[in-house]
Amino acid sequence: MFSVKEAEAIVFNLVQPLDRQRDTEVVDLLSANSRILASPVSSQLDFPHWDNSAMDGYAVRYTDVQQASQEQPVSLEIVEDIPAGYQPQSTIQQGQAARIFTGAVMPTSADTVVMQERTRREDNRVLILAAPTKPQEFVRHRACYYKAGTQLLPAGVRLHGTEIAVLAAAQCTQVSVFRRLRVAIFSTGDELVTPDKPLQPGQIVDSNQYALAALVKQIGAEPLMLGIVPDKPDALEEAIAHAISNADVVLSSGGVSVGDYDYVERIIESLGGEIHIQAVAMKPGKPLTVATFTNQVIYFGLPGNPVSALVTFWRFVQPTIKKISGLAEGWQPKFVKARTRHQLRSDGKRETYFWGQLHLTDGVYEFQVAGGSQNSGNLINIAQTNALAVLLVGQTLISQGEEVQVLLV
Ligand code: AMP
Ligand code: MG
Fold first, then answer.
1. Which secondary-structure segment (H or E) carries 299?
2. 49 C-alpha vs ligand 2 centroid, how far in Å?
3. β-bridge pairing 335-340 and 364-369
4. How many A from CA of 254 to the centre of ligand 1?
5. Which residues line ligand 1 at a C-beta cut-off of 6 Å?
6. How far is the CA of 216 from the centre of ligand 2 (A)?
7. In what order do the strands lie in the sheet with 249-253?
8. Residue ranges, the chain, pLDDT below 50
9. Residues 175-198: pLDDT tens digits?
10. Residue nearest atom 18 of ligand 1, based on CA coordinates
11. How deeply is 131 buried, as exposed, middle or buried, from its count of CB atoms within 10 A (0-12, 13-18, 19+)?
12. Which atom of ligand 1 is nearest to the CA of 231?
């Protein structure tokens, strides 16, 4: 049985990101939201595109106004009005200025902007009442933010509002993104029924498939829901064979313990899969099967217990999917330190995960363990979970108010 750290290293090393040439599609700008950029983006435009004013005021020659003061103002002739969006027509000669507005293009020969608040207008002249603090004050120079042809965004970033803004400004209306990862999901168990069926004695609803499909979607992959597969070797073999030839990642839940009806591992091997992990020293989640097939597909046989399935998904599957999806940075699990609001106890034998909520209170992270039973079969108190507190092997008690490692989910 592997430790969580060992299992994590094995799993993350089994997979590689999608191919930057083959595994991409071109989408329009708005559809690129939440997708992952497949190629670096550059622009042929400089930012700003031209020298422009950072203020409403007057475009001047610095040498004309460097001695200006309240007592000895400098009077300049106004030769042009330049609103944003217009090409200036005049060249500013000695003793002249142009009225200019924020974002408007600087006229030729003017090198400095004097803000309106330091001037007084007199018909077609302006009095400069204070010298600029330096030459070129309040001018945004062409290319001072970005030089045409250099990299604007690297491959592997997830595109959200801020990145979409940059792409739009660069007139990048078509974007090359990684294709969505296909994740096949099915549940195993004779006791399972879909949520729309009345329950017969002994039956339970297959909640795992819905939970996993929602989580897969949430991280930008495409779930293929393959349904409920009974605990029969033939049916399981058919489902697994179908899944591995139609998806990049396969998630099954149930059937990976040591029970009499737990066939998953045997079938994976019979289909040519290589099993890398059969169990991990964690609670919940000990029975976890990880296998790969020669076509690069990775198979996660998650435990059937609803909370175990979720905890192992968050701990191993979610980062793996993000890595394969092409995310260059930040695909790894994220931990923070938080103060626990309640004491947390474990027998110290396996790495133990408590589900609950992370709160930010007066600038300090606090972990609120979910009330009710912290039992892997109890799904009822999992709603609103956004974090898992972790007690390492050997840690048996973290008292109220003490610090605990928390995994963000
Ligand atoms: P197993 O790993 O197949 O031994 O299942 C462990 C426990 O989880 C059993 O009590 C199952 O009834 C329950 N379980 C298995 N699969 C699911 C599922 N898809 N949805 C909800 N509970 C499940
Ligand atoms: Mg089962």
1. strand 298-302
2. 63
3. parallel
4. 5
5. 187, 189, 191-192, 204, 206-209, 253-255, 257, 259, 303-306, 377
6. 22
7. 222-229, 182-188, 249-253, 298-302, 287-292, 274-279
8. none
9. 999 999 999 999 999 999 999 999
10. 206
11. middle
12. 3
Residue 5 DSSP symbol = H
∠ CA 285-290-291, nearest 5°, is 165
Give the start-end residues of each E strand in 45-203. 52-53, 57-60, 74-82, 96-100, 112-115, 119-122, 125-128, 139-140, 151-153, 174-178, 182-188, 192-193
Cα 40 from chain centroid?
A: 17
CA 303 / ligand 1 centre spacing (Å)? 7
Compute the distance between CA of residue 74 and CA of residue 126 in angstroms, rounded to an integer: 8
Q: What pLDDT does 45 receive?
A: 96
Query: Beta-strand (E) ranges in 10-49?
Result: 24-28, 41-42
**Domains observed in the chain:** 4-18+180-324 (3.40.980.10), 24-47+144-178 (3.90.105.10), 52-136 (2.170.190.11), 335-408 (2.40.340.10)
Whole-number pLDDT of residue 295: 86
What's the whole-number average pLDDT of the chain? 96
Pull the structure tokens for residue 197.
């069926």
Nearest ligand, measured from the Cα of 203? 1
191 CA: nearest ligand 1 atom: 12
388 - beta bridge partners?
A: 355, 407
Distance CA 239, CA 228 (A): 9
The model carries a pTM of 0.93
The predicted-structure confidence for 131-175, as pLDDT tens digits, reads as follows: 999 999 999 999 999 999 999 999 999 999 999 999 999 999 999
Angle of CA points 311, 196, 211, to nearest 5°: 15
Q: Looking at the CA of 186, which ligand is closest?
A: 1
Question: Residue 285 C-alpha to ligand 2 middle, in angstroms?
Answer: 14
pLDDT at 262: 77
pLDDT value, residue 39: 96
Q: Coil, helix or strand for 3?
A: coil
DSSP 8-class letter at 62? H
Ligand nearest 232 Cα, by number?
2
